[in-house]
Amino acid sequence: MYDTILLEAEERMEGAVEHLSQSFRGIRTGRASPGLVEEIRVDYYGSSTPLKHMASISVPEPRMIMVKPFDGGTVSDVMKALQKSDLGITPQSDGKLIRLAVPPLSEERRKKISSMVKEKAEETRVAIRNVRRDSNRKADAGQKDGELPEDTVTRLKDEVDKLTQVFEGKVSTALGAKVKEVMEI
């Protein structure tokens, strides 16, 4: 039971950090990144499909994203999806390729994005702490049921606390890197 609780806590904390990393990829900075458009959903023959599954996405220049749909007939569908998205970038097409010129962000917009990034990081920290709380409750229940002795429960809670500190450190590192990236001119 000890190993099960510890392993489950670690997996859930790792999942929270991974989710944060994925959401950070979709946040716009002053630089072009395929992550900005990969998850945009396109109506493709009646089903909502992520753009990365139906087009090649490249960054030929630091401020340009190029999207080349695998099926040339879907260019207009991709254009519509990009225009509907909250990117704030107007796509331009030549019939085969779609180009997205990523404009530099204003100082005010950088600060807003930076505070949004901090909120997401705090949500992830709360999720990690919730995992710790759940693990500690399971340990207490195991002690109450007689499956775990008191000293094992204490050791387990210490291990879970160490995991919590490690994963909160990863969140802080990711946050610092993303804020730095957003605030660069």
Keywords:
elongated; Gyrase A, domain 2; 4 helices; 15% strand; 185 residues; 57% helix; alpha+beta
List the helices and strands and how they pair.
Layout: H1 2-25, E1 41-44, E2 47-50, E3 55-61, E4 64-69, H2 75-84, E5 92-93, E6 98-101, H3 107-144, H4 150-183
Helix pairs in contact: 1-3, 1-4, 3-4
- CATH homologous superfamily annotation of the largest domain: Ribosome-recycling factor
Gross CATH architecture of the largest domain? Orthogonal Bundle
Q: What structural class results from the helix and strand content?
A: alpha+beta
Domain module count: 2
CATH first level of the largest domain: Mainly Alpha
Q: Which overall shape is indicated by the principal axes computed on the Cα atoms?
A: elongated
Helix content: 55-70%
- Helix segment tally: 4
CATH topology of the largest domain: Topoisomerase I, Chain A, domain 4
SS strand fraction? 5-15%
Encode the helix/strand succession as letters: HEEEEHEEHH
Number of strands: 6
Characterize the main sheet. 4 strands, antiparallel
Calculate the terminal CA-CA distance, rounded to whole Å: 51 Å
Poorly predicted regions are none
Mean of residue pLDDT?
A: 89
Assembly state (oligomeric): single chain
Radius of gyration: 22 Å
Q: Which strands sit side by side, in order, in the main sheet?
A: 3-4-6-5
